[in-house]
Design brief:
The complex is a heterodimer.
Chain A: E1 14-25, E2 30-36, E3 49-53, E4 66-69, E5 72-74, E6 79-85, H1 89-94, E7 102-109, E8 121-127, H2 130-143, E9 147-154, H3 163-168, E10 172-177, H4 185-197, E11 203-207, H5 210-223, E12 227-230, E13 246-251, E14 254-259, E15 266-268
Parallel strand pairs in A: 8-9, 8-11, 9-10, 11-12
Antiparallel strand pairs in A: 1-2, 1-7, 2-6, 3-4, 3-7, 5-6, 12-15, 13-14
Helix pairs in contact in A: 4-5
Chain B: E1 6-8, E2 11-13, E3 17-19, E4 40-41, E5 58-61, E6 64-67, H1 75-87, E7 94-98, H2 103-112, E8 120-124, H3 141-154, E9 159-163, H4 170-180, E10 184-187, E11 191-194, E12 209-213, H5 218-231, E13 236-239, H6 245-253, E14 256-261, H7 263-267, H8 271-286, H9 303-307
Parallel strand pairs in B: 3-14, 4-7, 7-8, 8-9, 9-10, 10-13, 13-14
Antiparallel strand pairs in B: 1-2, 5-6, 6-12, 11-12
Classes of the chains: A alpha/beta, B alpha/beta.
């Protein structure tokens, strides 16, 4: 397995009040939040996240901040974007934000994705909200001239996120859904084996599904393909202080706890343990 | 010019604001000017290697946070190799929080940490004592006296005892710590609590029970600080739900010589420096030249009325 290239020196985090530019529904579950945010926020690397102070609204009084992976960070426009599923206290509060409102956010935080200079073609496999996390990775790969095949999995066509975003980055995009059965792990496995045979899988990347993680781990081990996974965990501080967000990992034959906010959220795929 | 300096349990601090143990680590350097803090307080270390508790380790509640982290610890060698050199880069006094399952273990760990760069020991005696059927040392005055005495014999460093609020006898415990030779008491640790997920019927913490912190516990701990301040002549360091400058003032009026800020930092990483700035502004506005004068300055205190409530 090639050694991972050192990730670019991460920008120091900052806590800022970011004006909302847009916060629109993209389907019946997801909203797209665009914020005006200068450096260091707009320098966020692929896979890094922000800790958001979601507004309290009526019955929803979130106590902690909420970690949210970056959907897009644009240093030229000075913008940071999130794609989120409205699902709990925090995201229901986020959904109420209107243009002109301001959101307090801390970031960019954590260890993001990295690309080895030896990789010419990568496979990105995500499901649900995990696709938002993988989108900036596809953009980074495109900038570095690395070919990207993106397999986007969702319940139905209406719930596939970011197809156009991946297409715009020049990724070869394959959509699989529960509706037509194409998202079944055995069918995704066939797709992955085809990509391996075609020489299009120098590295695997995944986010958002335990079954897809385990599939990529198994095929990666079988074919010597390295990879990375972005993981989630409930967080309190986001800065590595509280040890609330630990998960178990395999490291050197032992099981160890690592902090998702500080040691991750992106980890070597072989270390991750399913959930 | 407001004088924010305080003297607490053998240490002179530039201001009365410091982190609560377990809510402070190197990650905060990114967003806070750490040299502005009154002291640094490390996450609790143990001699034993501890993995910590199962997840979920945290749950949010109304106005508070339940946690059951379980004191993960990489032991003393890792502390000496990584943690101590990191904090030594600042001139801010470093308070090292320690824990052990036995009184002897506490004493040995304190002795091992009598090192350049360590300004004081905070003994987290709120943890279970395996020699007393798992009851925390600070649940019992005799166990508190014993462990603090052994610690006192083991170290020349200023010694702070961190008490638990899960006792009906906080004043007696504080007196035991003072008698044992503590230079200050930290009042207090988290309040034991729990929460259940009504969808899954499962506890919301992997360890079932955990410690409640944040604004929800402030009135409880404030009352305990007041009781301890009346009971002992050593300084009391207040810790429980402090999130604003006014919270810190309230604690000092009730008897605290300094304060620790914990959960608030998770919500607002600059909480401690915001509080320092706010204390300075508050003192200016009120014409108070020396913040140390606030300690115990609450007016209208009536011992007769309080006698029934005191432990």
């Amino acid at each position: 397995m090639p050694a991972l290239a050192a990730a670019a020196e991460p920008a120091a985090a900052a806590d800022l009040l970011a004006p909302v530019i847009a916060n629109d529904w993209v389907n019946d579950e997801y909203k797209h939040l665009v914020l005006e945010a200068g450096a260091p926020a707009c320098l966020a690397g692929a896979g890094q996240f922000f800790h958001l102070l979601c507004p309290a609204t009526g019955a929803d009084q979130p106590f902690f901040r909420r970690p949210m992976s970056t959907y897009r960070a644009d240093p030229e426009a000075g913008r940071v974007e999130f794609l989120y599923k409205v699902t709990g206290r925090g995201t229901r509060g986020l959904a109420t934000l209107r243009p002109g409102d301001r959101l307090r956010m801390l970031g960019p935080l954590g260890v993001g994705f990295s690309l080895d200079a030896a990789w010419r073609n990568i496979v990105v496999l995500g499901r649900g909200v995990g696709l938002a996390t993988l989108a900036p990775l596809a953009a980074m790969a495109a900038r570095q001239g690395v070919g990207v095949t993106a397999i986007l999995s969702a319940r139905s066509l209406a719930h596939v996120m970011s197809v156009s975003a991946f297409n715009e980055m020049g990724a070869r995009t394959i959509v699989v859904t529960d509706t037509d059965g194409s998202s079944a792990p055995c069918r995704v496995e066939t797709l992955l084996r085809g990509l391996i045979a075609a020489g299009r899988a120098d590295a695997f990347f995944t986010c958002g599904s335990n079954r897809l993680l385990e599939l990529m781990q198994r095929l990666g081990a079988e074919h010597g393909i390295p990879g990375q996974v972005a993981l989630e965990q409930q967080m309190a501080c986001g800065l590595g202080m509280c040890f609330c967000c630990v998960r178990p990992f395999r490291e050197g034959g032992r099981e160890v706890h690592k902090r998702v906010c500080w040691d991750g959220p992106v980890f070597p795929i072989e270390e991750a343990m399913g959930w | 010019m407001v004088d924010l300096a305080v003297c607490v349990g053998g240490l002179a601090l530039a201001n009365p604001v410091m982190p609560a143990s377990g809510t402070f680590a190197e990650g905060l350097e990114q967003v806070v000017r750490l040299e502005r803090l009154g002291a640094f307080v490390t996450k609790t270390i143990t001699s034993e290697l501890r993995a910590g508790n199962p997840t979920p380790r945290v749950a949010e509640t109304a106005g508070g946070m339940l946690n059951s982290i379980g004191i993960p610890s990489k032991g003393v060698p890792a502390f000496l190799e990584h943690t101590l050199p990191f904090w030594r880069r600042w001139k801010v006094p470093l308070v090292v929080s320690i824990s052990a399952p036995t009184a002897q273990g506490f004493a040995e760990l304190a002795a091992a940490l009598d090192l350049p760069g360590v300004a004081a020991i905070e003994a987290n005696i709120s943890c279970p004592n395996i020699e007393a059927d798992g009851h925390a040392f600070a649940m019992d005055p005799a166990a508190t006296l014993d462990v603090v005495r052994r610690l006192r014999d083991a170290t020349r460093l200023p010694l702070w005892a961190k008490l638990t609020p899960n006792t009906g006898a906080i004043a007696a415990i504080a007196r035991a710590a003072e008698e044992g030779g503590a230079d200050a008491v930290v009042v207090a640790n988290t309040v034991l609590g729990m929460a259940v997920d009504t969808e899954t019927f499962r506890p919301r913490l992997g360890n079932v029970m955990g410690g409640l912190s944040g604004p929800a516990i402030k009135p409880i701990v404030l009352r305990m600080v007041h009781q301890c301040h009346k009971a002992v002549s050593i300084p009391v360091i207040g810790c429980g739900g402090i999130a604003t400058p006014e919270d810190a003032v309230e604690y000092m009026l009730a008897g605290a010589s300094a304060v620790q800020v914990g959960t608030a930092t998770f919500l607002q990483p600059t909480a401690m420096t915001d509080i320092i700035d706010g204390l300075d502004a508050w003192c200016r506005r009120r014409g108070i030249a020396c913040i140390a004068d606030l300690t115990g300055a609450m007016r209208g205190d009536d011992d007769v009325l309080l006698a029934g409530a005191a432990s």
